[in-house]
Write a structure and sequence with these properties.
Oligomer: single chain
Number of helices: 9
Structural class: mainly alpha
Shape: elongated
Radius of gyration: 22 Å
Length: 187
């Protein structure tokens, strides 16, 4: 592994720990992780943290260890995607980072049932042709904040059956000229 790849791996591993660092730090009382107890691969991923490892709070060490395990279990494609997300995060203005943090906190506060409903909605959206996704994005973006709130409230108050009925009433995706969708789905 080249030095650049190791550095990128360390950056990505650090980014991955953001998601677990807060809960780990909040638990308190967790035992620390001795540097020598990490595997050679984990040490390579976390090399840039070696000098300050012993001064790191135990919860942060645990989070970093978990992040390195997650990184090492990823495929090269997943690692590349994680690097891209990290670079995107790094380039975000502070206000946007704050919005993302707020949304993340809102997601953490959802019940397991609400999170599963959200995942299902996301999967359904991802299964739509790109043109339909864009159409829905534009429709949402054209709504006023009040219209968006009203839509969310109406949707939240519906039963699953009512939601299915509403989906069926929604106009189908527009077909491009000639009726060829070009496959339209994600792979």
């Amino acid at each position: 592994m080249t030095r650049t790849r190791i550095r990128l791996a360390a950056v990505a591993a650090a980014w991955l720990t953001i998601a677990v660092a807060a809960p780990a730090l909040a638990q308190g009382g967790q035992p620390g992780v001795a540097w020598d107890s990490l595997s050679q691969q984990q040490q390579q991923v976390l090399e840039r943290f070696r000098d300050g490892w012993e001064q790191m709070p135990p919860g942060r060490q645990q989070a970093m260890k978990q992040g390195s395990e997650r990184w090492l279990s990823m495929t090269p494609e997943q690692q590349a995607q994680a690097r891209e997300r990290w670079q995107k995060w790094q380039s975000m203005p502070p206000e946007e980072k704050n919005r993302v943090r707020q949304r993340w906190q809102q997601l953490r506060e959802l019940t397991p049932e609400q999170r599963e409903q959200l995942r299902g909605a996301y999967r359904r959206f991802q299964s739509l042709p790109p043109e339909r996704q864009q159409e829905l994005r534009e429709r949402w973006q054209s709504m006023t904040p009040e219209e968006r709130k009203e839509m969310r409230d109406r949707w939240r108050d519906m039963t699953p059956e009512q939601r299915d009925q509403m989906r069926q009433r929604m106009p189908p995706p527009r077909q491009p000229p000639g009726g060829n969708t070009g496959g339209g789905g994600r792979h």
